[in-house]
Design goal:
The chain is an alpha+beta fold and 364 residues long. The chain is built from seven helices and 21 strands. The strands form three sheets. Strands 4, 5, 6, 12, 13, 14, 15, 16, 18 and 19 form a ten-stranded antiparallel β-sheet that branches. β15 and β16 (247-257) form a beta hairpin. The chain is globular, with a radius of gyration of 20 Å.
């Protein structure tokens, strides 16, 4: 058993990764101080996301595929900030788990465009309106890459995003900066957003019809889920433009009052939304399985601090995320495909979405 005292988050993160011990650091949108929790045991598997209702304080990492278990890091210890009063931590280093990058990269432009063209043809044949196709952009890391520094740089580069760094034994290092709230719960008040429709940052004037239509589908879906799960006092804003680094998105905000018994059911019904999957959901999922060669794992799943027992949770859709393994950073990006999609433009959109993460990686 080792006992150490930590006063700097960066040193703590580095030691925990080296000791193969689960932890997560996160920074909420608009906040300056990150929060960190860790566990003396392996993350708990949650096979039914509705069970978040019964969980105490901790952090959840849920995959895109709802049939795969989510992982929950219980709050065995907690610290706030990049620097803090001495944290005496007793831990036993665990044997490192060998990780293999068993992924199929889609860096090839011709191949990705072929997949987009195939998706457009399937949509034209009828049965569904939208599918979200993703790809993985891989960047080699230099031998002195500092993952703890990377987290700090992400916080600086994405001040209005939910930023996290998570180490999961057997799953590796995941990090991200997402602008999309899946669900915020405070007592019986819940809020969420529809974030769909993307264009290059700085363009003025009306949004293209394709992007507006994508946004309407997501907004309609969220409003329907709120109603179906018994929410009352539903409030919906007008759609407006928000910036996310090199791109802008269309956003609509929702709020409602939700009885306690429906909290877990609402999460289960919301995820995955049409913004990360497509519409209708069943056909979109079938198309993703046919056309994507990689496992999305936690990309387009959700992540965030939870305390189901106290009804206080902040869950974010896991966009703009990266998995770090075998001296590579694998960046996950995607875009919504409809009957009006231009394959060349879809490729450019995914490239734009990766720019800030790639720039931050180069600094570390």
């Amino acid at each position: 058993m080792t006992e150490m005292i930590f006063t700097h988050l960066r040193n703590l993160q580095t030691e925990l990764i080296g000791g193969n011990l689960p932890f997560v650091s996160w920074r909420l949108p608009g906040m300056s101080a990150p929060e960190t929790v860790g566990s003396s045991t392996l993350p708990e598997q949650i096979t039914d996301i509705r069970n978040l209702n019964d969980m105490g304080p901790g952090f959840v990492m849920a995959p895109f595929q709802a049939t795969h278990p989510a992982l929950f890091i219980p709050n065995h210890w907690y610290r706030s900030g990049f620097r803090f009063d001495g944290l005496p931590l007793k831990f036993e280093r665990q044997k490192q788990t060998s990780l293999q990058r068993k992924i199929e990269l889609t860096n090839n432009k011709r191949e990705y465009i072929r997949k987009v063209e195939s998706a457009v043809q399937r949509i034209k044949q009828g049965g569904f309106d939208k599918v979200v196709l993703s790809r993985i952009i891989s960047a080699p890391l230099h031998h002195e890459f500092d993952v703890a520094l990377f987290f700090g740089q992400l916080c600086c580069s994405y001040p209005q995003a939910f930023v996290y760094l998570c180490y999961l034994p057997g799953k590796g290092i995941w990090a991200g900066a997402t602008p999309e709230l899946l669900l915020s719960i405070e007592g019986e008040e819940v809020t969420t957003m529809a974030l769909a429709g993307t264009r290059k940052a700085g363009i003025t004037g009306n949004w293209p019809g394709k992007e507006q239509e994508e946004h309407r589908w997501v907004s309609h879906y969220i409003a329907g889920v709120f109603t179906a799960t018994g929410a009352t006092g539903i409030q919906q804003s007008e759609a407006y433009t928000v910036n996310a680094g090199p791109v802008d998105h269309l956003r609509t905000d929702f709020s409602a009052h939700l009885p306690d018994m429906y909290f877990g059911s609402l999460i289960k019904k919301l995820h995955p939304t049409p913004a990360v999957c497509g519409w209708p959901q069943e056909r979109a999922l079938e198309t993703i399985a046919d056309l994507e060669d990689h496992d999305r794992e936690f990309y387009t799943g959700f992540a965030g601090p939870v305390n189901g027992k106290n009804r206080n949770s902040e869950l974010y859709v896991n966009l703009r995320c990266v998995r770090i393994a075998d001296s590579h950073a694998d960046i996950y990006v995607g875009g919504g495909i409809t009957v009006d999609s231009d394959p060349e433009a879809e490729w450019e959109e995914t490239t734009l979405k990766s720019q800030t993460l790639l720039e931050v990686i180069k600094k570390c």
